[in-house]
Task: inverse folding
């Protein structure tokens, strides 16, 4: 009887150990970000210049919520959500939410045309050397980071957003 | 049911095929020869099957299951090489589109089934993990009973054990001193000799039996190394596309390092320029068809001061290096490998403002395709405005000109041309080999006047701190392999019974070698050379089948 019990305990222990190792690998690979860029982490600081030549530094926006959107003029989903962001920005600007739209290094000319076409009122900056894209590990466009008043990433949204969603997201980072 | 006591007094675990100590068969004899695999020990997984834990354990303990897991993984891995994986696609393409455009319906299916990211998929990981589990449990389940059995083996073996060995002989013998000679000869051949009541067990190379398990430990270390890649900071694998003349941040270095591409060179073997012995080979494929060099002349910089993304970096030059295939630029555990290239990417395009009728030119403009200017003044009242720019032009679903990406693969422009006689300007849409005048007949046109190109190099950025773990795993794997392959576990038993000397022998491989060794050892002693019972059985069988004797 003793041997049987010992064997059961031993086998359970070995199986548990293996399960933990396998579980950790799968979990860390598929359910967590492998990087510093994850929900709850501090958003990496950056400085970029907008179309009017004004520098925007993320850390200067502490105390406000920042709706950080990465986009390109060729990206149709980006194009769809831009008017929604523009519309909601009018309301939430007064409530302490800023929008920063980071273009992924296109010619100023193209970006300016795009901004004029949609009458965008929030600052649009150009990441000319991909540095900010690297820091935020942008893969698909559009990608939006919701950053709260303490500079922490609250959510990462990839893919296009509806106007309702945009409104909800801005509401969520109101200081 | 728990344990079985043999007549020699040794207590064996349930399921043992023959006694660990004396070798007396505990199960009914079916075949004339004993199955010596795992020393007849009970693989306990095969004998206890009560709880859920036992059932899981037994599943993984099965070699059959292990082999199937490996076969499935092999097939999956092979499928992953049919088309390129997602991570190796050119930048700025949409995978869904790319696979279908390049490979048709097969590519589409490939993408839809998720094979585009096969090696990173959860089910592939799970397969590898299951192989790992199978490896651990299979090994544990076999190495422990084997160790027990080899450790408990007695010198005096049961008659039935000896007679049912593959090599066996019995000799009537009077002179006891013969055994002394044999013992000496065995010792000279590095056998370990144990003696008990005048019976002898000579054994050598037992450690080769541990080879497969050492090998498995190596594999497990290797898998742990692979697992470590998922720990942040342990492994970096990125791609950097960099144009000639550009200085760019190296991705994966957290903004610390920058690289400048001074020049990318692609060379081929040219007829007449190479050693004459290559001529035939060059003729066969054609001159200029075989690649000779892919080289990026690069300068590595380190950023000085705090890292703020987007800020114009202060750079300190670290080194210059010519990156070639298999000659990476290495620094601070990072390595940059030459991996891909794109020749003659458009850099700028030149146009002349021309009167369509007289063909008179009023000056030339050059448009930088990455940062085009908005206005180009040609003097004398002539001016060109760039209204819109599409670096990778196509007509979208709504029929409007649009761009596919920011890469100038197929640039198109909307120009507005001003002249003294056309103060309001004329609009012209210019693409490669295509001009559209949306508002009717223009007096002026933008005549294509030339292009400037440059090459783009792609480099792989690698940093791998798991490499030494993989190295240790691989080394242990090799040691295990060598241990099991190049040594044999040989045992020779000599038993005195009723005035006879019984000789039996066993080896885990290389029976021919064992036979030759026995021959040398018993030479001149009068002991009969053992008969290979397995071979006799084969001959008898063969005779039956073919009807010859």
Result:
């Amino acid at each position: 009887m003793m041997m049987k019990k010992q064997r059961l305990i031993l086998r359970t222990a070995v199986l548990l150990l293996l399960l933990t190792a396998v579980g950790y690998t799968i979990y860390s690979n598929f359910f967590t970000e492998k990087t510093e860029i994850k929900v709850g982490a501090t958003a990496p600081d950056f400085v970029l210049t907008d179309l009017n030549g004004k520098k925007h530094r993320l850390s200067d926006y502490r105390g406000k919520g920042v709706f950080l959107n990465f986009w390109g003029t060729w990206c149709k989903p980006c194009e769809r959500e831009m008017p929604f962001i523009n519309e909601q920005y009018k309301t939430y600007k007064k409530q302490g939410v800023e929008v920063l739209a980071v273009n992924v290094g296109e010619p100023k000319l193209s970006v300016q045309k795009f901004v004029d076409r949609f009458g965008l009122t929030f600052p649009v900056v150009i990441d000319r050397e991909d540095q900010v894209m690297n820091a935020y590990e942008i893969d698909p466009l559009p990608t939006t980071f919701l950053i709260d008043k303490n500079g922490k990433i609250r959510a990462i949204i990839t893919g296009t957003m509806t106007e309702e969603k945009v409104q909800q997201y801005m509401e969520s980072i109101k200081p | 049911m728990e344990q079985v006591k043999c007549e020699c007094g040794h207590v064996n675990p349930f399921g043992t095929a023959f006694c660990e100590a004396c070798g007396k068969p505990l199960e009914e004899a079916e075949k004339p020869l004993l199955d010596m695999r795992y020393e007849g020990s009970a693989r306990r997984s095969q004998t206890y099957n009560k709880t859920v834990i036992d059932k899981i354990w037994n599943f993984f303990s099965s070699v059959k299951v292990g082999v199937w897991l490996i076969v499935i993984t092999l097939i999956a891995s092979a499928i992953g090489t049919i088309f390129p994986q997602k991570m190796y696609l050119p930048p700025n393409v949409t995978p869904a589109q790319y696979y279908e455009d390049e490979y048709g319906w097969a590519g589409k299916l490939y993408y839809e089934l998720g094979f585009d990211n096969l090696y990173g998929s959860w089910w592939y990981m799970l397969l590898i993990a299951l192989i790992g589990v199978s490896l651990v449990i299979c090994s544990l389940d076999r190495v422990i009973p084997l160790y027990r059995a080899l450790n408990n083996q007695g010198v005096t073996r049961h008659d039935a054990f000896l007679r049912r060995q593959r090599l066996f002989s019995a000799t009537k013998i009077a002179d006891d001193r013969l055994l002394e000679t044999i013992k000496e000869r065995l010792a000279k051949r590095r056998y370990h000799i144990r003696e008990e009541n005048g019976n002898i067990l000579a054994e050598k190379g037992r450690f080769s039996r541990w080879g497969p398990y050492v090998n498995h430990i190596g594999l497990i270390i290797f898998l742990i190394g692979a697992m470590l890649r998922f720990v942040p900071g342990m492994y970096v694998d990125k791609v950097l596309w960099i144009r000639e003349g550009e200085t760019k941040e190296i991705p994966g270095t957290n903004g610390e390092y920058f690289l400048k591409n001074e020049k990318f060179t692609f060379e081929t073997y040219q007829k007449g320029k190479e050693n004459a012995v290559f001529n035939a080979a060059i003729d066969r494929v054609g001159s200029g068809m075989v690649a000779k060099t892919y080289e990026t002349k690069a300068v590595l910089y380190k950023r000085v001061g705090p890292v703020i993304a987007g800020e114009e970096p202060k750079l300190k030059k670290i080194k210059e290096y010519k990156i070639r295939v298999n000659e990476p630029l290495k620094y601070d555990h990072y390595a940059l490998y030459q991996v891909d290239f794109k020749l003659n990417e458009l850099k700028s395009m030149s146009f002349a403002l021309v009167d369509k009728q007289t063909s008179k030119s009023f000056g030339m403009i050059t448009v930088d395709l990455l940062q085009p200017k908005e206005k180009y003044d040609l003097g004398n009242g002539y001016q060109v405005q760039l209204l819109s720019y599409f670096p990778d032009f196509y007509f979208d679903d709504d029929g409007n000109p649009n761009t596919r990406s920011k890469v100038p693969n197929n640039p198109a422009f909307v120009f507005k041309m001003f002249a003294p006689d056309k103060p309001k300007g004329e609009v012209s849409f210019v693409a490669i080999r295509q001009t559209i005048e949306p508002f009717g007949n223009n007096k002026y046109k933008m005549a294509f006047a030339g292009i400037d190109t440059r090459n783009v190099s792609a480099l792989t950025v690698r940093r791998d701190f798991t490499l030494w773990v993989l190295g240790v795993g691989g080394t242990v794997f090799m040691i295990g392999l060598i241990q099991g392959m190049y040594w044999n576990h040989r045992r020779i038993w000599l038993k005195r019974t009723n005035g006879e000397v019984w000789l039996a022998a066993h080896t885990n491989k290389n029976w021919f070698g064992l036979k030759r060794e026995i021959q040398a050892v018993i030479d001149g002693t009068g002991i009969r050379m053992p008969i290979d019972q397995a071979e006799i059985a084969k001959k008898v069988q063969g005779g039956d089948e073919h009807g010859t004797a």
